[in-house]
Amino acid sequence: MIFLKFNLCVIVYETILYVTVATVNDLHDLKYFDRRKADSEAFLMPSDFAMASELGDNDWQDSDDWALYSSGKFEGDMDITEGDILELTNTYPIVDSEDTYPQNNVLYNAVRNRHQLWPNSRIPYAMSNQYSSYSRSVIAAAMEEYTQHTCIRWVPRSVEDYDYIYIMPDRGCYSMVGKTGGKQTVSLGTGCIQKGIIMHELMHAVGFFHEQSRTDRDNHITVLWENIQPGMQGQFEKYDHGIIDSLGADYDYDSIMHYGPRAFSGNGQPTLVPKIPIAIGQRLHFSTLDIFKINKLYNCPLRVIGTKRTAVSSSPKINESQKLTNASIHLIITDSCKNIRSDCDELAVHGWCTGNPRWMKHYCPKSCKLCSNLTVQPCVDQRPDCFTLMQNGHCTISNVFMHAFCSKSCDFCKSVLRNETVATLLSTKSAIITTETTTSKSNRLKQSVGTAWRKLINSRINPTEVSSTQKTCSDRKGFCIHWKNVGFCKGLFSNFMMENCQRSCKICINEDDDKTSE
């Protein structure tokens, strides 16, 4: 068994899943996302959290985590060896490869490098506008689990947030481990729009590896190496104590971060067998230890650990102290019966009119034929950065946006906003105030991570291969084009890309290579 040692950080690359999608799958995916739309940043809205609350626990009983293990669908990955996958699985981008670790009879599965934790338990996010309303509600449901059980807060990215996660429907399910700097991708593609899988990927972003990668895992499970897909053995390696931190928890078979029994199976037989009769790989909820470890890692208040949190929720719900008064009513006058959301007809077809009549009466009265003359909304801010936006003059500059999302800060509570204005706002991709952010912020870990990565990579490369690579400008890895497209040529992974993906990143070393790349 190989133990990998790093001084600063670890990337768990849970195999970027390149799914070969047929036309039938494309049509099926339209329920969840539409990649034909021009991608732009959006964020969850109160209506998404309202829909999430209507889904219920029964919706996840038949969840299937095959998307986490679809490594057999790689594109051009025959170059990816066990060592290559391990290099990625232990440097930062964690794309579903499950990790957790123990030391001194204590468990480990959290990042040891505190620079990878999100300050103040606050994780800014943005998401692709390609997701359907259903997918948005499932993502909201997953985020709400963190809100209910931990002090982690998922907040819409503001212009001041340089570091944030970007949720998008890339190929398969993957995420970085912890905060890596700048914009970091969390992919929720085909097969990933399930509450448990999303919670799993977000827990990677919070700073956790897979449970069965812990140093002490062989005391608790048996790995049946002969049943693993060829080339995928690297997905089952263990990590040295220096990579992860001990959080004082026992081995957790019930963790949402544990592989299932047939993960990466090449013959349909189990690849992981617990040493006691117990199920593994559940994707329904956090385990008690999951909650404990998240709260321990982020030093959450004691009243939060192991219980539902009572602090501010990530979802913009109205609490008891915000009872409706004449001063807190935000009126929306309806000239006629109209839908507020653009996807109402779709929701009606899927049975939301009868399944969630109260919610649909507010947002989709026309599609459900549930019209009324007047709707009322509590006057509250729907974004955590409303006060800052108000100070920057957006109450005037972005009047419609601020009416919908920052009424309280702008003192719009007694004003009237017509339904068609809200409908236009909610159905367009202009529902985010953004400005260009500079890339001048230096990455403190870039040089050190690059050095650690090069040492590992160079130790596994054939000398003749290096010599050949130096003479021509070419890509040495099968995923270079994909990595380039998700932004790895710049930032934290630029050193790795400079050595292995010169052609894709157009960073050839000499003039001859430059010409070759052209």
UniProtKB/TrEMBL annotation:
Q: Which InterPro entries match?
A: Astacin-like_dom, MetalloPept_cat_dom_sf, Peptidase_M12A, Peptidase_Metallo, ShKT_dom
Where in the numbering of this chain does the Peptidase M12A domain appear?
A: 109-301
Q: Which domain of life is it from?
A: Eukaryota
Known EC number: 3.4.24.-
Q: Where is the ShKT domain?
A: 337-371, 379-413, 473-508
PROSITE patterns for this protein: ASTACIN, SHKT
Q: Which residues carry out catalysis?
A: 201
For this UniProt record, the keywords arranged alphabetically read as follows: Disulfide bond, Glycoprotein, Hydrolase, Metal-binding, Metalloprotease, Protease, Signal, Zinc, Zymogen
Q: Which GO terms describe its molecular function?
A: metalloendopeptidase activity; zinc ion binding
The record's disulfide annotation reads 337-371, 379-413
Query: What's an example GO BP annotation here?
Result: proteolysis
Q: Which cofactor does it need?
A: Zn(2+)
Transmembrane region(s)? none
Residues the record lists as binding Zn(2+): 200, 204, 210
Instruction: Tell me how the cofactor is bound.
Output: Binds 1 zinc ion per subunit.
Q: Please name the Pfam families in this protein's record.
A: Astacin, ShK
Q: What does this protein do?
A: Metalloprotease.
Q: What is this protein called?
A: Metalloendopeptidase
* Lineage of source species: Eukaryota, Metazoa, Ecdysozoa, Nematoda, Chromadorea
